[in-house]
Amino acid sequence: MVIIKRCEWANSNDLEEQYHDNEWGTPNYDDATLFESLILESMQAGLSWSTILKKRDTLRKAYDGFDVDKISQYTTAKVELLMNDEGVIRHRLKIQATISNAQSFKLIQNEYGSFSDYIWSFVDFKPIINSWETIKSVPSSTELSDKISKDLKSRGFKFLGTTTVYAFMQSVGLVDDHVVDCFRRTGITN
Question: Which residues are involved in binding Zn(2+) (predicted)?
Fold first, then answer.
């Protein structure tokens, strides 16, 4: 029997394991996926990642498949619908931030051609590959996440502090924080 070594945080449940094995740390350049990840990370503030993963499908449905164009046009009536939807994170400020973030996301797309070009420019378009021995060694934020968070905030984004931005960077592969013995770490083969 082959034992697969993963980052310790991914061993709690099947959803976390699947997310770790198939998404976390994989470089992503697709604006739609980047937007979804950004929104999910902003929704996670104060909650466990497991909670977000459990609600991911219902969040996707409630937020029109995380369609940035649709979300940027949400009205107060839509906010009230979301506030009454038990399948989502019913936090008014987070819902309003999602709308505001969609509008800011579109402005970046207009300025840079894509959000991908904007966000990947912070790492010169190639992932930062770290070599952490244990998950406890992985920082919750860095100078770079401070810089990105500050820039996003200056562009109108909300609920994207440095810790949330670092989690986003990890999720979309701007940084590879798989620990050195994890099978998903860049350069590791089974």
Answer: 7, 20, 178, 182
Residue 129 sits at φ, ψ, to 5 deg, of: -110, 115
Q: 100-152 pLDDT, tens per residue?
A: 999 999 999 999 999 999 999 999 999 999 999 999 999 999 999 999 999 99
Domains of the chain (ranges; CATH) run: 8-176 (1.10.340.30)
For this structure, is 112 an active site residue? no
Q: Over pLDDT 90: what percentage of the chain?
A: 93
Distance from C-alpha of 93 to C-alpha of 76, rounded to nearest angstrom: 12
Token digits of residue 147: 């810089």
pTM: 0.95
7 is in an annotated binding site: yes
Active site residue 132: no
Structure tokens at 31: 């604006």
Given this model, what pLDDT does residue 188 score? 53
Residue 176 pairs in a beta bridge with: 129
Contacts of 110 (CB under 8 A, 6+ apart): none
- Indicate if 118 belongs to the active site: no
Residue from 16, 24, 36, 41 carrying the catalytic annotation: 41
